[in-house]
Design brief:
alpha/beta; 2,3-Dihydroxybiphenyl 1,2-Dioxygenase, domain 1; 2 domains; 4-stranded mixed beta sheet; 3-stranded mixed beta sheet
């Protein structure tokens, strides 16, 4: 077996980087860990990681001339873990912000899930163990 201990970063292209950063920072609560002078890409911490490297969502601004994303997109969705004891409160908070949450059933892991879309249309799953 290999020595991989987790996912360190997921890098997302953005036509509107400020909107994406606001979503991941203000809506989902990720912490910006980029120094203030860094404008592109922006690194947000999603978790502490397992081997001294934080888990990150990285938002990269596309050049203005880039066309809209076409379907089907390469990224199906990304999933972020929440604590089971926080799941219901997080669901209520997001619904209170006006998000239309979708639910689903993980095919392998006994879990609870909810889905919403970021400003670029990427599906974001929030998941906890059942």
């Amino acid at each position: 077996m290999g020595a991989v201990q987790g996912i360190s970063e997921i890098v997302l292209w953005a036509h509107d980087q400020p909107a994406m950063v606001r979503f991941y920072r203000d809506v989902l609560g990720l912490k910006v860990i980029s120094p203030p002078e860094r404008k592109n890409p922006i690194f947000l911490q999603a978790g502490p990681g397992q081997a001294g490297i934080p888990q990150m969502i990285v938002v990269v601004q596309l050049p203005e001339a880039e066309p809209p994303f076409a379907e089907p997109r390469t990224l199906h969705h990304l999933a972020l873990e929440v604590a089971p004891e926080d799941f219901d409160a997080e669901k209520a908070r997001l619904e209170g912000l006006g998000y239309q949450l979708r639910s689903g059933q993980h095919p392998v892991i006994p879990s609870r899930t909810m889905y919403l879309d970021d400003p670029e249309g990427n599906e974001v799953e929030l998941i906890c163990r059942a």
